[in-house]
Amino acid sequence: MKLILLGPPGAGKGTQAKMLTERFAIPQVSTGEILRAAVKDGTPMGQKAKELMDAGGLVPDEVVVGIVRDRLQETDCNKGFILDGFPRTVAQADALQVSLQNMSKKLDRVISLKVDAQALIERLTGRRTCKDCGRGYHVKFDPSRQAGVCDACGGTLIQRNDDQEETIRKRLQVYADQTTPLISYYQEAGVLLELDGMQPIPQVQKEMLSLLQAG
Ligand code: ADP
Ligand code: ADP
Ligand code: ZN
Question: pTM for the full model?
Answer without folding.
Answer: 0.96
